[in-house]
Design goal:
96 residues; alpha+beta; 4-stranded antiparallel β-sheet; elongated
Length: 96
């Protein structure tokens, strides 16, 4: 009986690992920050038009200026979440 329970547990864990890597993510905003000066920073993803994965971009909007964009990834697996960190001394943005 213990062997059957162990086998079932291994099968369940393996299924969870496989499914979590295969299930699609979502289109939309993964992370958002608004700076004190009104600048908005976003990390967003959308399903690729080639159906090979997701396109991920970094978008930014300073007050009174148009939106800007920087490439992060394409044909990538879905990002489940994102984070934006800003170093106030160097003004460097770190995304993960």
């Amino acid at each position: 009986m213990k062997i059957l329970i162990s086998i079932a547990l291994v099968v369940i864990v393996a299924a969870v690992i496989v499914i979590s890597g295969v299930l699609p993510g979502h289109d939309g905003i993964l992370a958002k920050r608004k700076l004190p000066d009104g600048t908005v920073l976003l990390v967003a993803q959308k399903q690729s038009t080639s159906d090979l994965g997701y396109e991920v971009g970094f978008y930014f909007k300073e007050p009174s200026k148009p939106w800007g964009w920087c490439y992060l990834a394409h044909d990538d697996t879905a990002w489940q979440h994102g984070s934006i960190r800003i170093d106030p001394e160097s003004n460097i943005v770190t995304i993960w």
